[in-house]
Amino acid sequence: MTVSVEVQSLSKLIPQKTLLRDVNFGVEESEVFVIIGPNGAGKTTLIRLLDLLDKPSKGRIKFANTEIKDYSPENLVKWRRKFGMVFQRTVLFNAKVYDNVAYGLKIRGTDDETIEKKVKTVLKLVRLSGFEQRHVHTLSGGEAQRVALAQALVIEPELLLLDEPTANLDPANAMLIEEVILNIARERKATVIMTTHNMFQAKRLADKVALLLDGELIETDTPEIFFNQPKDPRTLAFIEGKIFF
Ligand SMILES: Nc1ncnc2c1ncn2[C@@H]1O[C@H](COP(=O)(O)OP(=O)(O)O)[C@@H](O)[C@H]1O
Ligand SMILES: [Mg+2]
Predict the structure, then answer these.
(1) What's the pLDDT score for residue 242?
(2) 20 to 30 A from 97, CA-CA: which of 47, 117, 122, 215?
(3) How remote is the CA of residue 49 from the centroid of ligand 1, in Å?
């Protein structure tokens, strides 16, 4: 199962500032969509809107061709149960790895035996087999982020949202997380939307890349066109390293 995502004229304004201006894009079912941009571009703002943690000031978000109009807790829960979200800074409960990963299944009323099986499978996927009884405060940053990924994946999300999931990690952990993301997209056919400031990561993972600068989506293309024949001079400047972050 998977969902398509469409964003139309999406804007987010706060009293002093426009964080996102008139953003448009579409992500097809099972596509990996990578939003790339320097610090402060609005990546977190955008991904929080997609995760329905914030409300847009203007514009529309559609999942599976259904516009999100109703931001009541009941409707948000209905949608958010289909989503897995990984934040840039790992967010875990102060508890054992097992309980952290099992949480999403527990609140869905899954039986203990199934939970045990699924937790085991997903921990294997993120190469943390045997870590079930470890308390999360004993984990390295990379291990903790892999637990966060397992927590997002255990519910078999239709849409996986990741906000700079490897930004604070060493290369080995970053590669591992990239492998898992690709695996989920290919094997489980989840739709994936992730942000990064790392263009090599975008090249490795993306079916489509979008450049976000200063709250505006500059260019959305396949990696081939985006990196080899960009249409916008700002995309060229970014990939040539002339826009710093
Ligand atoms: N609630 C807020 N109040 C004021 N400024 C904000 C708020 N949220 C984000 N910003 C600012 O908006 C810009 C975009 O932020 P963010 O979405 O976090 O960018 P990114 O994730 O790409 O680094 C930044 O300059 C940030 O400081
Ligand atoms: Mg951010």
Answers:
(1) 82
(2) 47
(3) 13
Domain range spanning residue 218?
1-82+158-245
Nearest listed ligand to the Cα of residue 15: 1
Q: Based on the domain organization, do 60 and 112 belong to the same domain?
A: no
Q: Has residue 228 got a pLDDT over 80? A: yes
Supply the residue whose CA is at minimum distance from atom 25 of ligand 1.
Answer: 40
Residue closest to 102 by CA, chosen among 160, 158, 162, 153: 153
Pairing of strands 58-63, 66-67: antiparallel
Six-digit token string for 13: 């304004």
Cβ 86 vs Cβ 144: under 8 Å: no
| Domain co-membership, 221 together with 244 | yes
Q: Look at the chain and report how many structural domains it folds into.
A: 2
Cα separation values, 228 from 1, 86, 135, 231, Å: 33, 30, 46, 10
Q: What is the rounded CA–CA span in Å between residue 142 and residue 158?
A: 24
Q: Which of 123, 156, 189 is the last residue of a domain?
A: 156
Q: How many CA atoms lie within 13 A of 138 on its CB side?
A: 8
Q: For the whole model, what pTM was predicted? A: 0.96
Considering the domain architecture, whether residues 56 and 95 belong to the same structural domain is answered as: no
Looking at the fold, whether 111 and 225 belong to one and the same domain comes out as no
